[in-house]
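Lecture 7 notes: from sequence to structure.
We start with the chain below.
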Amino acid sequence: MFEIVPSQWMKKYFEEIDFAFTDFQKATLAWNAPGKLRQEILDALEELSEETRDEILRRQINERLNYEKKTFEIFIYNQSGRYVYVVENMEYESCGFFVDYDRALKYAKKYMQTYELKCRINKQLIVAADEDEIVHNPWRGNPNLGFETEEYCAYEGDAVASVTLNMYGEIERVCSYELPEEEKIVDGYKVGRFEYHFIKMPCPLQAGTPVKDIRDGSYYILGEGEEEWNRYLDRIEEKEWYVDFSDIQMMCYGLTESGIWSHEHINPLYIEVEFPTYIEDDPKRQALRYATKALGDYLSHKSNGKEFCPDLVLKYARKYAEVCRKKSSSEKMLEEAKKPEDIML
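Predicted structure tokens for the same chain:
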């Protein structure tokens, strides 16, 4: 199995305090692992099912593996030509239409190599009769939060299934609505299933700590620390809130190019403790480093009931926005002009 704790910092901390995840929790982490191919995740689950002594988990994993196998088999099967496979880039622009999956995949690989853009392949129903205009509802609200969803709805052009590919044509993700009855077995909204199970874990990070999101390399400052994290976990138990995997999150602030520190919620398993690295001759990175240091110090002191240099936070956020501000083509023309004719259009 691949490493289920992506953050090296958190992994080391868990080892130091002798904290270990249960097999059930490992399955949850594997299923939600960022940056892994679909097959890598399925292989990890199969390996775990062979090793675990948790019979409930083994059953659930086998149900998931069987479901995933069936969804892909039916995805690539075009029943009597009732469907069309649409190659689409990640900007939702259609790039090609095909009667079979293999031909669509071949074209998608060529398209991605040519334009250096990722693709997905959507399986679209060809509406040929009145009965085709009533379909299984692809959108479903979480019943644990009080949402009720009709099982059927009017056709609105949504794909019955899709696969997302990486640049090598390997499958990252499969999304399918073709097997509604089988899907009920592996329903991720079921509290007792492993797919999106909430995991209670320790997190010793403190407010003001600079961190990097390992999924995309973005830098942040933690807006809250261990004390707030523990209170959050306690409230979940005391109030018996419904929570799932998406609720494993800490508030972080990321600096936008407009100079505003915008908050995000990130799983602590996906962050490394890291200050923005130095890049020579990169004024944007230098401005980010100054702004990150300023807000980090400010929030660190604030968490201890003190105020520390609020003016510096504003100063370096404004400086970062100034560095990021792109000049218009006219401004660049004026700046680079060598003679009057250069600014005469």
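Points to note: The longest helix spans residues 55-75. The two ends are 63 Å apart (CA to CA).
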